[in-house]
Write a structure and sequence with these properties.
single chain, alpha/beta, Molybdenum Cofactor Biosythetic Enzyme, Chain A, Molybdopterin biosynthesis moeA protein, domain 3, 7 helices, elongated, binds ligand LQZAQKY5, binds molybdate ion, MoCF_biosynth_CS, molybdenum cofactor biosynthesis, metal ion binding, MoeA_C_domain_IV_sf, EC 2.10.1.1
Length: 405
């Protein structure tokens, strides 16, 4: 059988993985703990923002018809101060954020006036509402403030606080088990014997999963035998929403993950037309309560794990959290600073991007093999090179942006 026979397209893998994914239940959280969490429902504005007409500048409030006149100052309005209606034929000293007094309709910044013995001399032609921030011009009470599915970034948290909101309903973070396979693995901190390697995939994937919104609750190293692997998969699937394994999905006698998955649950797809990550396995495990836990078996090579996480774990978290921003990686076009030929698999090359006057240039790390993690360090994007393509330097390539978080 040719090496590439029965390789499935990446899209088929994603379809199988995301089919009927349940959405996480909602939980209420104080806003102070809700950074990066995904809103479970729309949030409506309770207040107008700004809540009252106020000044955008330090200066003087007046009626715009009084442009060109010299007026006495009848009151002083600092931010937070009470105000009285503006007396006729006068102006008010006002500071940024101060409430516009009734009767005034514009503000002139202090640099544009002249202070004379008779009062403040104003320039000619002051536009109506000049330097006034009108009530409700940012947000109107009763209108949508933030949509369900929004990931709470800094501005969204500021928007909530601006409304006096202290608690929000967000999606519970999916619980993920991250199981490493491989008798050669040991944890950093232990002495390294010949033939052993440190488990680098665990912290890398833990960080990526947390960035994608997951709660990595189970970490374990699985023994290289079918029975031990079965036991660990069974237990993990009963306590989490997603089980991720690394290694053990290729064709060697020591690769037990697929067999264990098939005997416990269901293998949806195995062997994809992608490089790196060909032996990636997708499936489902019984959750012990009549439902299913999603299973993603990443190949052990570190770059296959890195790329597999961006291509499969991130959209999976997007579906579980019902978050469009997570579900799809942003795409951009760049000029390749490299040449390459692909075979029957789509190649996801790790690139650094340079934003130049002439456009975006993708620089590829010279060694793109799946064991070379240096190719991922500092990568801004994955350049997507279709199968059987011949890319010359300068050609435009499609890239998936990895820096959105
Ligand atoms: N005869 C064939 N051999 C292989 C094929 C094939 O088609 N025919 N596919 C190759 C491809 S492509 C990949 S990718 C790898 C994937 O193999 P496994 O998923 O079974 O992974 P392992 O063999 O367990 O490990 C591969 C590699 O990665 C290292 N590794 C594993 N876990 C970690 C970890 N947590 N941290 C750091 N490094 C890790 C492991 O030591 C191996 O060097 O199979 C090819 N073989
Ligand atoms: O498909 Mo593998 O990740 O190239 O070594």
């Amino acid at each position: 059988m040719p090496e590439t026979a029965s390789l499935q397209p990446v899209e088929a893998g994603l379809d199988a993985l995301l089919e009927d994914v349940p959405v996480m239940p909602a939980e209420n959280l104080p806003c102070s703990q809700a950074a990066r969490r995904v809103l479970a429902g729309d949030v409506m504005a309770r207040l107008d923002a700004p809540p009252f007409d106020n000044s955008a500048m330090d200066g003087y409030a007046l009626r715009h018809e009084d442009a060109g006149r010299t007026l006495p100052v009848s009151q002083r309005i600092a931010a937070g101060a009470r105000v009285t209606p503006l007396a006729p034929n006068s102006c008010a000293r006002i500071f940024t954020g101060g409430a516009l007094p009734e009767g005034a309709d514009c503000v002139v910044m202090q640099e544009r006036v002249e202070i004379t013995d008779d009062g403040i001399r104003f320039p000619d032609n002051i536009p109506f509402h000049d330097n006034v921030r009108l009530q409700g011009s940012d947000v109107s009470a009763g209108r949508p403030l933030l949509d369900a599915g929004t990931r709470l970034d800094a501005a969204a948290l500021g928007h909530l606080a601006g409304q006096g909101i202290t608690e929000v309903a967000v999606r519970r973070r999916p619980r993920v088990a991250l199981l490493s396979t491989g008798d050669e693995l040991i944890e950093p901190g232990q002495p390294l014997a010949f033939g052993q390697i440190y488990n680098g995939n665990r912290p890398m994937l833990t960080h990526l999963l947390e960035t994608f919104g997951a709660d990595v609750t189970h970490l374990a190293t699985v023994p290289d035998d079918v029975e031990g692997t079965r036991e660990m998969l069974r237990n993990a699937a009963q306590q989490t929403d997603v089980v991720v394994t690394t290694g053990g999905v290729s064709v060697g006698e020591e690769d037990h993950v697929k067999a264990a998955l098939e005997s416990l649950g269901r293998l949806d797809l195995w062997r994809l037309a992608l490089r790196p990550g060909k032996p990636l396995a997708l499936g489902r495990l019984p959750d012990g309560h009549g439902g299913e836990t999603r299973f993603v078996g990443l190949p052990g090579n570190p770059v296959s794990c890195f790329v597999g996480a961006w291509l499969f774990l991130r959209p999976l978290m997007g579906a579980l959290l019902h978050c469009p921003e997570l579900a799809q990686l942003p795409r951009l076009s760049a000029h390749a600073d490299f040449s390459t030929r692909t075979g029957p698999r789509r190649h996801y090359m790790r690139v650094k991007l340079a934003f130049t006057r002439e456009g975006i240039v993708a620089h590829a790390y010279p060694d793109q093999k799946s064991g070379v993690l240096s190719s991922c360090v500092g990568a801004d994007a994955l350049a997507v090179i279709e199968p059987d393509a011949d890319i010359a330097k300068g050609d435009v390539v499609d890239c998936l942006w990895l820096r959105g978080d």
